[in-house]
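Exercise: predict the structure of this protein bound to beta-D-mannopyranose.
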Amino acid sequence: MNEMNDRKQILDNWRFRAAGEKAWMPAQVPGCVHTDLLRNGKIPDPFYGTNERDLQWIDKQDWEYETEFDIAGSLMASGRLELVFEGLDTYADVDLNGRRLLSADNMFRTYRIDVKEWVRPSGNRLRVRFRSPIREGLARLEQHGYGLPATNDDSVTGGLGDRKVSAFTRKAPYHYGWDWGPRFVTSGIWRTVALEGWSDCRIADLFIRQDEVSARRANVTAIVQIDSDFDGVASLTLTTEDLRWDAELDLHAGRNVIEVPCVIAEPRLWWCRGMGEQPLYHFQATLSREGVIADVRRVRTGLRQIRLVRQPDAHGTTFYFELNGVPVFAKGANHIPGDSFLAEMTESRYRHEIASAVEANFNMLRVWGGGIYEHDAFYDLCDEYGIMVWQDFMFACSMYPGDESFLESVRLEAEDNLQRLRNHPCIVLWCGNNEIDIAWSHYIEKGGWGWKQAYTQDQRERIWADYESLFHRVLPEAVSKMVPGAAYWPSSPMQALTGDANQHAHNSSTHGDVHYWAVWHAKEPFERYNDHVGRFMSEYGFQSFPACRTIRSYASASDMALNSEVMLHHQKHPSGNQLIHAYAEMYLKAPRDFPSFLYLSQVLQGEAMKMAIEAHRRRKPFCMGSLYWQINDCWPVASWSSIDYFGRWKAVQYYARRSFRDVIVSIEEKAGRLAVHAVSDRLVPVRGQLVLQLVDFGGQPLKDDTVDAAIGPNTAAIVHESSVSAWLSGHDPSRIALIAEWKADDGECLGSAIHYFASTKNLALEQPGIVVQQVVESNGVALVLSASRLAKQVVLETEEEGIFTDNYFDLIPGKPKKVKFYKRGNGQTPFEWHVPGQVTVRSMVDFILS
Ligand code: BMA
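Solution:
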């Protein structure tokens, strides 16, 4: 049944077929051809084994979707009737009752067509024919005359050799393959299709522009776009909470833009998580004519003042976000699309990701430019949970054409999405693209990723001019037109607006943001994270394998080996498995078997990200952001993700949760000295006693020291310094640990850290004898773990889906640890406290050869 109300009718009941075939099959809209084929039993699970390879024929075909619909009398009576496509992926010819309405070519646009003249009360037939994005891409490539670099476009798997077509089509770049994702260049109606009716006049858009917001007052302007069929008077009322503003309007036929200035005294400010609440204001605009309500529009926003502060200082130029006057250290990760097949993303999957980010003490996610402008649900959740969003436009790791029709398509795409998303308080930055400026490095002949070398001087100049048109003109113009005052940053990473050789970003930039990838791509040791700290670390990362049961979703028992065909197929970075292996050899003892190697890979990733995050935070306020690569996956795979495709937390998610706590203690060993750092994101000073205790692996105290330790608000400082030799004094470094615990006067543990004097590989680990006890608490049951010898990276596992309050932690004899389990909830409650059936507890010694 079609969902109907007076003004809107969602069009469903779709069928589909390959163009040229006779028989139709049922289709799901929103959806795509791959999932429709799968549901009809026409193709095997695209994620299983190496099936991806065999499914490349799908994108070489044209596909047809069709529905028939009747229109209810009340809607039919509307003066205007619009057919609205919120997402067509991508080259779509739309026919209604045999008449061509539209030829779409941009997946990110909203298409709205007046169809009043062409519809009838019953028996309407709507057909959408998707032309093959590959064939279209090839035609555009040929027309362009030469190819454009697109490092992650997996044209080989797609059967196209070195012909990379992704850059010529406004379609999610990751569909063409990425170094964590498969190539499924799908087609389909990926967002809602509806008929919308109106008569006389309607509110087309309501934007609450935040002109100046402080705790004292918020000056906002409601910008109301009204479409009218007549010249004449109407009235508009705007309300929020118990406030009300009225305006008499003199409308003219066509689009009217009305500005209603509103002052809200002592507004409740929106803060990111950790800094305050997330109050949201519901604004309602009511349009009336002759005392009768013609239309009502509601939007939700949070009132806040946000600035990207880039100011010269003694080191270079600052790069930080100031929220309501307070500099915020951004903590979080990069986000990619949660599925290769976008319509598979549900509100509950988004909620799981955002709630997991909150549980891990994030306050920011970067919506990275190789995916999509996310669904409304994603931003709604970020608004509600207090997660700031760094929003890229959808361009990544590729050069793009710059002809007039491409630029115009991008302009419209940008305006559509800016309009859709501009009321979300969570969005703090609009960024032009991912890594293109640095990859091309126009002003450094040998700089960048070697792309320029494939082109003549003339071609280079044209490619760069096209780049500048897109990222230095079209996009910033769209941002300032649609969201005046919002921050725009042309590319990530960047130092400053690129105009000569000195402006290009590099690993040691003291201006702009930095992507630091020498750990991983260049095999540098994890310790290099301590040396390469920029003003804002918007990318760095390390891969791991997902959990064994996630691997079982795509591999059979016989595939369970590092270099099996299936394991290599589910590793999209060309040398990923070797790199993980090489780092494992560097830091850890050899694994007992393949499942043990999976555990080691996760521990390694956790240790690497801990080291990076804490190095960044210790340099606050020089460094004001740390976003690791990447929080999620779009299919089950070995990747940099911290939460796998099924929502299962890898070790690193727990490590991040600890290292992103608002107050931490972090120990750094450098040149024979040991510095204990305290980092605080609290807005009040923090003080307490720092207790340092040297113990052996049996928990025996060997030496200690206690000092008063205090730091100011929102900063970092060294609170204790000593020499390594003073602690070691004759002890075997492979058998001792230094524990630092910072305790407030009221007993609160502000932070704690454990330091080892040897690499995990060289520690003298023995069977720890872990004991688990269930402890009944007033509203649930907790587990208390204790050990008789040091237990490294203790892992708790259960068959049930959910998270522990801590995991992959070290357990010191004499210091029992209480842990709870929260099962993954549904709907509104992302996690529910629960007693898991059976929990296995193991630690490093169980996975390594002695
Ligand atoms: C950065 C990202 C992605 C990529 C990741 C891992 O370049 O922007 O393009 O997936 O590194 O290589």
